[in-house]
Every structure is written in C-alpha cells, then in structure tokens.
Write a structure and sequence with these properties.
With 495 residues, this protein is of the alpha/beta class. It has three domains: 3-200, Rossmann fold (3-Layer(aba) Sandwich); 205-288; 313-494, P-loop containing nucleotide triphosphate hydrolases (Rossmann fold), CATH 3.40.50. It has helices at 44-51, 81-88, 94-103, 120-131, 150-161, 173-177, 198-243, 260-288, 351-358, 391-398, 402-411, 428-441, 458-471, 482-488; strands spanning 3-11, 21-29, 33-37, 58-63, 66-70, 137-142, 166-169, 182-186, 191-195, 313-322, 325-326, 331-335, 340-344, 365-371, 377-380, 446-450, 474-478, 491-494. The strands form four sheets. A six-stranded mixed sheet has the order 5-6-7-3-8-9, sandwiched between helices. Helix 3 (94-103) crosses helix 4. It is globular and about 110 Å long.
Length: 495
C-alpha cells in the first residue's frame, strides 16, 4: 500500500494572524480517487500547494509518489499543442499522449494547432491527458470544471473514473459523484477522510450533524440539572460543616469539639457534591467535542420586484452578429414572470453574448427581440477577475446597502477579516461571492446570471438553490452544474 501521510500540519500566510491549518493530520492511499471539498477560503488550493512543497509549513508530509498539479502552467501558448504536451512529459511516447487525448474526445488535428487557439475546455482536457501519462505521479487537480460545459464535464468525469491516484477539487456534486471513491473534507476544525462519493458523504454528514445537535441539547439539559444539584449539595455541605464545631450551652465553659453525626453528614454531602461536579465536568467536556464541524447555513433573502407584468423578453429567430457572421444560432423563446429559464449549450455557442444583448448592450443582431422597457435587471457576469478596491466602494458603485452586502457575505461564510482587504487579494470564489451578494441586494424584476456558481463552494450552492426555490424570482441563467439546473429551472432552451 502506498500512502500519503500528513501529520500535525500547521500553516499561516505571512502577515495573517489566522492559521489556514492548525495541527491537522490525515492519511490516504495514493491509489484512491479523492474529492476535496470545503467552504471557499478553507484552504483547498493551499493544501495542494503545501503537498507540492511550494509553501513553508510546520509538521510532516510523507509520500512515496511525486505530485503533479493541474492546471499546469504553459509558458508559451503560441507553441503547437503537440510541442506543449511533449514538453510536459518528455519521457512519454507520442502515441501514449494521443491515446489519452482520444479518451477525452480530443481529435488528432489539435496537435498541429497553437495551444492558445484551443477553447478553455479543450486546454483542460489536453493538460489532464498529458499529466495522466506520467508514471508514479499523484495528481492534484484544482477545479477543472470551471471551463467545461455539461458534455465536457461528463466526458472528464468518465475519464477520471477510469483512473486512480488523484485529489480533485470540485464543487460540482454530479461531477464528484461520477469519478471519486473517497471524500477529503476540510472542515471548520479538522480534515477528515471518508469512503464513498459526495452524495454518500453529504448524507453521512447530515446524520452526524443531526446526532450532534441532539446530543448537544441532551447534554445542555443534563449540565443545567447537575449544576443545580451541585449548588444544593454544596449548600447542605456548608450547613453541615458549620455544625461540626459549636458551643454547648449546658456546660459552664466553651466546649470546642467535633460532633460525630454532623461530621459524617458533612463528609457525605461533600462527597456527593464532588461526584456531581465530576459528572458535570465530564458532560461539559463531551459537549465541547460536539458541533465543531457543523456548517451553519443561514437563509438568504432576495428583494424581488413584482410590480411589472410579463412577458419580460420575447425572441423570434434572434441571431447575434460579429461583423456579418452570426455568433449564436437562431433563438426563439420568451421569459414570463416567474420563469426560471436555463440557457444550455456547449462552450462557444453564444450564451454569454445573448445575455449581453438582453441586458441592453448595443450588439448587432437579426430577428425580432422584444424587451419590456419597464423591467429592472440585476446581472451577474461570468468573469469577475477585475474586481478591485474596497467592498464599501463597490457597494457605492452599484447603489446597494453596504451593511446588507456584508450581512449577505457573512451568511455565505465570508470571513470578516476580508471586509477591509482589497478585493484584488480575494480568491476566485470569494470574488464570485461578492458579485452574487451584490445581485442579491438589488431589487429587480429579472435576474440574469452568467455561470453564477463558478468557484462557489457546495454549501453556498445549496443556500442559493434554497433561496431561489423560496423567493421564486424571474431568472434567466447560464450554468453547467447539472444538479443546480435540475433543482431550479422551470424551463430550458438549448442553443
């Protein structure tokens, strides 16, 4: 058996007072297919970097394999794909690389194209194919699904399911269920390993959390009862102690001495009080072991405007143009009040471009487009890399309540320490949460969301699902998380 052993790992970023990891330990078999899950900011990418030796740490990491990280940096994207992949794995034969690429549904013709001309999904597949050619390598795969459409996710999940020996960071529940056999979970207080896929891990976590909640309530009541009993026993013991030595009025002189009955009674009361104190301390200690890893997910709210009747959009054979060339297929659909319409289709078919047109951007198109002039739209863009400055300035820019924005971010498990930090220092998941929280602060008739869940952790996805089902907004969205779409979409349109 080949093991990866992590013992007493501690790490804190320079300039920070909050440790990312504090004395955590775990052990895994390097033949396992591990899904790594945890809230945004818990240190998933940091853990991968620590395993690769990219950061200094305290503790011990032992492994009998070498580590390879995805995404792999391509120094010259203008090189041909074949040259890039051969440079990555010079020890491999070309036919081996081509075989892996074919398993990921990549054609041979890509080898003679510059790497930069591949779509993001094709680049993801090509890099994964090359990395899996390497001998005795344990792969650390960091969020490959962010650039994959639904078909690409199914293909990569099927590919990974045939492999072994990797840690995969992903927040897509269906994707994880399709290709992992263990879950490595970064919790609030520790890191745990459990056999099974994401769904089985989540069911077990819910059962464990429910049991801990019940035990906590039971121990709370027991502690209260024991503390009351301690007070009563202590009072009786003090009263008995005061009677052990006294003055006998029948004698002409003071008689100081121990009274056998009272002494025995005092001793017994003290013994009982001590036993109850010990039971109380034990109950308190048991209680302190509970609830450490329970994730609190508070309910979100959405200020939906309802003062405008539909339809909000009606499209008849609309095709968006780039120059004279169509960049979308003909689109015909309508968005009525209360609809939750999922735009589906492969990468590059024009979903984001169509959303830009619906937002009112002056892009040329053919066909007929009706857009209700009275509606107010809240838009979440696909990319938010350019966020910079303070949260307060961002709230002012969009005219939303700064206090409300912070409240929503806290509900999405956003660390308070980040409130004063410049947004350019945020992780991709934290930036996406800022943009989503801003949209949730905005009063709107229609919410247009372009891949809102990219980089967002699983628990936050579940919070957003619950919010949408409860608030029932009119929503037009692009999202490749199949489970999210199944849960909330009332209509779909395939491009």
């Amino acid at each position: 058996m080949s093991l990866l052993s992590v013992s007493h790992l501690s790490f804190t970023y320079e300039g920070s007072y909050t440790p990312v990891f504090d004395d955590v330990s775990f052990q895994v078999d390097t033949r396992w297919k591990l899904g790594l899950t945890g809230r945004n900011g818990r240190g998933k990418t940091t853990l991968l970097r620590l395993l690769c030796g990219e950061l200094p740490y305290q503790g011990e990491i032992h492994a009998s394999v070498s580590f390879e990280r995805f995404p792999y940096p391509v120094s010259d994207p203008q090189q041909l794909v074949g040259e890039v992949l051969t440079h990555m794995v010079p020890e491999a034969e070309e036919w081996e690389i081509r075989r892996e690429c074919s398993l990921l549904h990549l054609s041979d013709e890509i080898f003679d194209r510059p790497f930069s001309t591949l779509s993001s999904g094709e680049q993801t597949k090509a890099l994964l194919a090359a990395l899996f050619v390497r001998e005795n390598a344990f792969l650390l795969i960091d969020e490959p699904t962010n650039h994959l459409d639904e078909t690409g996710r199914r293909q990569v999940a099927a590919y990974l399911n045939r492999k072994q020996g990797f840690i995969l960071v992903s927040h897509d529940r269906d994707f994880l269920d399709g290709c992992v056999d263990h879950i490595l979970s970064i919790n609030r207080a520790d890191i745990t390993v459990q056999a099974g896929n994401f769904s089985s891990w989540w069911q077990n976590k819910q059962r464990q959390d429910e049991w801990e909640q019940q035990q906590n309530e039971k121990l709370q009541k027991e502690i209260g009862r024991l503390q009351q009993s301690v007070r009563e026993k202590s009072r009786w013991a003090d009263l008995s102690e005061s009677k052990k030595i006294g003055f006998d009025p029948r004698k002409t002189e003071k008689s100081m001495g121990r009274r056998p009955y009272e002494a025995a009674k005092s001793k017994k009361s003290n013994k009982r009080a001590k036993a109850i104190r010990q039971r109380t301390e034990k109950a308190v200690e048991e209680k302190s072991q509970l609830l450490k890893n329970i994730e609190k997910t508070e309910k979100l709210r959405l200020p939906v405007l309802t003062d405008c009747a539909g339809p909000f959009f009606t499209l008849q054979n609309v095709q968006v143009l780039y120059g004279e060339k169509p960049v979308t297929p003909p689109c015909s659909f309508s968005l009525e009040k209360g609809d939750r319409l999922a735009l589906r289709g492969p990468n590059g078919c024009g979903k984001s471009t169509l959303l830009h047109v619906l937002c009112g951007e002056p892009l040329p198109y053919t066909g007929t487009l009706f857009r209700n002039s009275r509606i107010k739209i809240s838009y979440v863009p696909q990319r938010c890399d350019d966020l910079h400055g303070t949260l307060e300035a961002y709230a002012r820019l969009y005219g939303v309540s700064y206090t409300q924005l912070l409240t929503l971010l806290r509900k999405l498990d956003f660390d308070r320490a980040l409130f004063e930090a410049p947004m350019e220092t945020y992780s991709a998941g934290q930036k996406k949460k800022v943009v989503l929280a801003r949209s949730l602060c905005e009063e709107a008739h229609v919410y247009l969301w372009d891949e809102p869940l990219n980089y967002i952790d699983v628990l936050s996805r579940m919070q957003i699902e619950e919010l949408i089902l409860q608030a029932a907004p009119t929503l037009l969205f692009v999202e490749h998380d199949a489970r999210f779409c199944r849960e909330i979409a009332t209509k779909t349109f395939d491009l």
